Amino acid sequence: MEKIIKYLSKYYTEEDKKIEIDPSKFHTYEMNKYDGKILAVDGGSGIVFDGGSRVISKIKIGVVEYAKGKMTKQDVKKYFMLAIWKNDGIIIKLDPDEQITLSNKKIDELQNDARDILERKMINEIAEKEKDAIILSDGLQNLSPRNVASICKTSRLKTKNGRSLIGYLNEFTKDKYKDKLWYYTISEGEYIVKFHTRSKFCYKVTTKNKEVNNLFGAIAYYSTDPEILGYPYPLLKVDKIVRLREDEKQFDNHKLKLLAKQEGVNLEFDENSMIMHDLLDKRAYR
Amino acid sequence: MNVGKVIGGNVGGKLLIRLKSNAKVDVGDLLVCENENTGEKFFLKVVNMQISSLLAQQFIEEMAGQKLEHDEIDYNIFDAQDRFYRMCEAKILKIKRGDEFYPPRSLPNFFTDVRKINESDDFISQAGEIEIGYLRLGREALKAIKTKLPAKGLISHHMLVVAATGKGKSNFARVFLRGLLKLDDYAAIVFDPHNEYYGGKGSKGLRDHPLRNKVVYFSPKYESTPGAERLIISTRDLEPDDFFGIIDLSSTQQEALDLLKRKFKGEWIEKLLGEEIKDLFEMFDKKIARSTLAALRRKIYHALELHDKSGLVFTLEKTDDVSIYDKIKSAIEERKIIIIDTSMVGDDSEKIIASSIVNRVFNSFRYLKQTKPQEFARTPEVLIVFEEAPRVLGSEALANGVNIFERIAREGRKFKVGLCAITQMPSLLPAEILSQMNTKVILGLPSPADRSAVINSATQNISDESVEIQMLDRGEAIITSPFIKFPLPTKIFSFDDILKEDIANIKTTEKDISIGVD
Q1: Does residue B365 sit in the same domain as residue B486?
Q2: B68 — contact with chain A (CB < 8 Å)?
Q3: What CA–CA distance (Å, rounded) separates B114 from B34?
Q4: In a domain, B191, yes or no
């Protein structure tokens, strides 16, 4: 480990000196106590039954709405998705019915693609309906509505010499912009933004909204919750309601197998071909 | 209005209820919830409260720290009502199925709505003649529901009234006595060391009640109090027993008192105090040591607070009047409340007054039961009210030997004589005596030792109510008794308020009036 750290230190001490940041791309902005609606959309998914070539997943797409600092609405749509191999292809069946097209060929990853599609669909519907509202997405890219801002919790953006751009900007601004809210323009519609002066984090934000000062000021107001300073609270809230917990997955797994049994089908034979890793993991934790 | 939802609990333990953010719920509140599928109605009592959150403790601490240390920075807690909330622990008092009440052997369902009790819940429709207050919900009194105690049996099974100073012990006793006044089958003797029961200048008492013709008041200062009788006791009416267990006497001294009584009959105290020690020594053929006689003379003289031949209450002279004991006996037969003003005499003197009176009442009842059972059946139950009870029932007092109060605590119920022991320090009473006090009126008790003494000896399980007992405010009480269905949270009436109501509601006759204000 020591060798690796020595090698890495060179990059931080020598290579990073070569990074050039364009000062004209830095901007400060003010928080504004936004009175309008702000909505956050997120999705969660997980496999509740894995029979190797027959996989059932659960997908949850949720939305929360806030106005004047208070939650005014929340809603979660739940789907079960069956992915099943047939004739060298995968058939998808959603309950409740929804028409989606998936291209990913890995049967245990299809639920992520389906979640992505359903999430986009909800965002587009809401953006159309709530034209004056700000809609926050949890990191989905290439969203076209002007009133949507997508906030990425993680980013692989890098400087020319290969350092994390967000990491570098965070370090670069820690003294100079200590008590300021700032954003850095990467390209048109693509920004790195700090939403709270006391936060250790900044995020990549993509939006087609041109009035970014107002947009970021409003998001900054909703990023003042001390549970997670600097991250928009509505996104935290919607994440909580769509997250698929392990106990929920287990409950659904038992229910599925029970219902199947009532139909004369025993799913356990197929499931046993896939769960040995999980069993060993659980034993190791004990 | 719903105040919360059931979120956990177990039989024999407590229910956990998440409270609505704007619900006003306090420890001691009575709540109700209903299982829709079974129709069971659960009556609950809040015994503790806590604040809670689904967030990990470290987040909460960090959030508090950020707000404390960086006040200049913008913070807003969103969804505060959802994320930070109050919960309460409640014990199940009773379950109602149909019209019947049952012990708590079942539980409400998850997420059952919980509301506060109200007058339509007929929760407290218990029998009882003596109204003592209102049903108390935490800090509030539900004035539509009056709490009552049944007099029959409760009196002779003894009562303990406990509270710290200023929490309303005497007020409760006056309210209870006011209840007895309205009944025809009960009498009471009140030893009043602070002269606060009868009433006087600036304070209301039983003499102000429309039924004051049922009150008899004995006081050394009888001349200045209209309607009062003189409190005077001739030493000729005293017995050695009146001193045993009351003042500190060795067994040798007790035997000596018996010998004096046997030899001099009614004049035994006059002789002890009047004769020369050497003569007494000779009169008893040197069987009683000079030192014993000298010690007895000193103790009895001081205890009776005599100055020459007479003191404020006791006198060596033979009184011409009917003795106080006979007057009290008659008053008991007439079902009256007898108040003895002992505010001007010392502690030992007061105890001897009380001991001598109570001895005679107890012995006459006992004699009556043994010899004339039919007549005994017609006698009223008598309540003896004694303040600062550890003076006669405390472990230290009982070290002096058995006294009449302890005897009544053990045997009184057989002879229709009950004690109402009032104290602010129940922990000074032995556990056995405490357990004999079947009805306990518990007002605020801040001392843990006193609380645990009362809780451990209560006839109903009130171990969960310790926090509530600690926090009870003036006039707020919990009453436990085998004669009521569950520990009764009560806001005791203010005597002055209830007196006004009685004056407005009870018609008095000229004869009645003349006794109190002559």
Answers
A1: yes
A2: no
A3: 8
A4: yes
